[in-house]
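Changelog note: in this version the structure field was regenerated for every chain. One regenerated record is shown below for reference.
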Amino acid sequence: MLYAILCYNDEAAVFSWTKEEDDAVMGRLNVVHEKWEKAGKLKPSLRLLPTSAATTLRKKDNEVLDGPYAETKEQLLGFYIIEVDDLEEGLSFARELTAANPGGAYELRPIMLYNPGSPVEQR
């Protein structure tokens, strides 16, 4: 089963980290990444640029807005795609991420591929 793990955190806090602080967090995350990659469970993962770089097209009035659609305390800063046997295994991955990365929340959401040309295949 494929899951998207959406990574939320306080953008102001994350983007205020020094290079050393960011490198330390990424180093801890890479330990988790390598483990799950070797197991064949980790699929594409992305770190998003700040919401100040976002543009939103609002459907109801075709208005183009600077920034993200939702105004929340924590922002979507990235996401993982994982292939696991069930939700419990997905939660195991998310728990390892929380141990490596301070603050925030991880939302697990089952996904279904709808793009037949996608390089990620479900088993």
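Spot check on this record: The chain has a mean pLDDT of 87. The longest strand covers residues 75-83.
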